[in-house]
From TrEMBL:
Protein name as it appears in the record: 3-oxoacyl-ACP reductase
InterPro entries: NAD(P)-bd_dom_sf, SDR, SDR_fam
Family: Belongs to the short-chain dehydrogenases/reductases (SDR) family.
Length: 260
């Protein structure tokens, strides 16, 4: 299927590795031009080299912290126009809410709620004026089924989801601008491996035993891959997804047990 996004410009945040990288790669394979951001220069440039080797769209890099005004300004300046915006940021740490002060909450909100909103605010009117725009917010399966120790993530990402629920149904929808959430479950990324390592250490297990135990909780009996996550993102960004907006797509191998 031709997704119809060849030549479009995409800004993909936190794209040097993991799910962001998977999304950027899927978009490049469809011929989109991408600006990818991350804080780590070395990993960012290594990813850019891989994407350029695909031989399709143009790839630009912006090293910096997308959660700062300076980082956002640099990323937006590198993108001639933003037709596709993929919001992504690492999740805040787990813990007990009793130990989180105001500064901890503000940091989580800045990264996982306010930064995506700022980027949407900076790009959405131009998308509407051109008659094409796709925004995909990578959030978390915890938006659908909150995880006790991830209160910071539960709160910040759910706040973003609630805000988008209204914005996606505003007059921008009639201008072919869509906003959707992509909610990952357990994917084979550095973040998952770090979480499994910490959990294994706490329980006195080895990492592979912890990973096997986690896999057994997933009906698909495996972790997802960044490539398959990216493919879903690319479809949401495509010409074919113009009638799909304000939705939260859960990609978790069947882990969530609910009907709705």
């Amino acid at each position: 299927m031709d997704l119809g996004i060849e030549g479009k410009w995409a800004l993909v945040c936190a794209a040097s590795k993991g799910l962001g990288k998977g999304c950027a790669e899927a978009l490049v394979r469809e011929g989109a031009n991408v600006v990818i951001t991350a804080r780590g220069v070395e990993a960012l440039e290594a990813t850019a080299a891989e994407l350029r080797a695909i031989g399709r769209g143009e790839v630009r890099t912006v090293a910096g912290d997308i959660t700062t005004a300076e980082g956002r300004a640099a990323a937006l300046a590198a993108c001639p126009q933003v037709d596709i915006l993929v919001n992504n940021a690492g999740g805040p740490p787990p813990g007990d809410f009793r130990n989180w002060d105001r500064d901890t909450w503000i940091q989580a909100l800045d990264a996982n709620m306010l930064t995506p909103i700022e980027l949407i605010r900076s790009t959405i009117d131009a998308m509407a004026a051109r008659g094409y725009g796709r925004v995909v917010n990578i959030t978390s399966g915890a938006v659908k089924a909150p995880i006790g120790v991830l209160g910071l993530s539960n709160g910040a990402r759910s706040g973003l989801t609630g805000f988008v629920a209204g914005l996606a149904r505003s007059p921008i929808a009639a201008r072919n601008v869509t906003i959707n959430g992509l909610l990952p479950g357990a994917f084979d990324t550095d973040r998952l491996r770090t979480t499994l390592k910490a959990g294994a250490k706490a329980l006195g297990q080895n990492e592979e035993a912890a990973a096997d135990a986690r896999r057994r909780t997933i009906p698909s009996q495996r972790f997802g891959t960044p490539a398959e996550f990216g493919a879903i993102c690319a479809f949401l960004c495509s010409q074919h997804a113009g009638y799909l907006t304000g939705q939260n797509i859960l990609v978790d191998g069947g882990t969530y047990p609910g009907t709705f």
